[in-house]
Amino acid sequence: MTTYPLDGLRVETDGLVAILEIARPPANYFDRPLIAAIADTLDTLAADGTVRVAVLCSEGKHFCAGADFGAPTESSDRAADSRRLYAEGARLFDSPIPVVAAVQGSAVGGGLGLACAADFRVASPKTRLWANFARLGFHQGFGLSVSLPRIIGTQAASRMLIGAETVDGERALALGLADRLAEPGLERDVAIAYARELAALAPLAVRSIRETLRGDLRERVVEALDREATEQAWLWETADSREGIAASLERRDPEFAGR
Description:
This protein is α/β, with parallel strands linked by helices. Helices cover 47% and strands 15% of the residues. The chain contains 11 helices and 10 strands. The strands form 2 sheets. It has a 7-stranded mixed beta sheet with strand order 1-2-3-4-5-7-10, sandwiched between helices. Strands 6-8-9 form a 3-stranded mixed beta sheet. Helix 1 (32-48) packs parallel to helix 2 (78-91), helix 2 (78-91) runs antiparallel to helix 10 (217-235) and helix 5 (144-152) crosses helix 10 (217-235). The protein starts with a strand and ends in a 10-residue tail after the last helix.
């Protein structure tokens, strides 16, 4: 069965596996309606009870470049828009369905946060994972304050968040940020095969083990999202943030003044 919901998300179910494809190429920027559509779909699949594992993937060259700072916002209040977006993002951590992200090309900023909301990630040597917030002049978001160090440890996460270090697929595999490494262009195929392996396991045991391992993850993410949104709100008003975002849109190196 294939459906084509609104907001740039395609959904296909194939037996025990669902494929959720973001269809906004080439950068696959997200916004609140898209994240809500992903969360709604996972809720619907969980309620149906047929699908055991979901694959999150994207059309085109890149997995997700996060939010599009060159696009119009939902309202004139960016901070309020961010909190509404994060409220939908928190729902991704509620789903009882394990998610495998197929990360081709780049997962940048909030796109990295979306990848880290999944349980597992498949990358290739050409995959680039980048928490570029310090180069944009504001605080990380989408729960990365919790999800990234949970996956790779505090020190490696510090290098990525504070140091804006870019990680390729091979390095991601070594860090544990990627769980399988595919040939370039085959990230989705490998992710689907991995999802089918997981779906063949005892579903009640998988769900129970997953709940134990996740513990209070959802609560910690919600708490982190609140701080992330608060820090982003004042940092967006700084000259450094304006410079960082402008430099990114103009594809040049930023020049920060510390104000």
